[in-house]
What does this fold into?
Amino acid sequence: MNLPPGSMRGKATRSNELLHAIRETEKIAIFLIEHDMSVVMRISDHIIVLDYGKKIADGTPQEIRDDPHVIAAYLGVADEEIDEVKSGVRP
It folds into this structure.
């Protein structure tokens, strides 16, 4: 994929690569607050999800992607589905 120099997507890609390289080279943890889930999923091996300041999930990217509470909080569900989603959520 050829991105124009200075494009936002190009900057994001370079930033992701830099963060990943720093983490691997320096063997350090990186605390990242990010709302772009594609970025989070690409560079994280452990994720903690907050909803209005309350921790709702903690795990690997795959666990977070499949967590019904995360899905409900970030993608939304119809009112009639709330009880069904909550019943699938770990206490």
Notes: Residues 8-26 form the longest helix (19 residues). Residues 23 and 30 are 7 Å apart (CA to CA). The two ends are 43 Å apart (CA to CA).
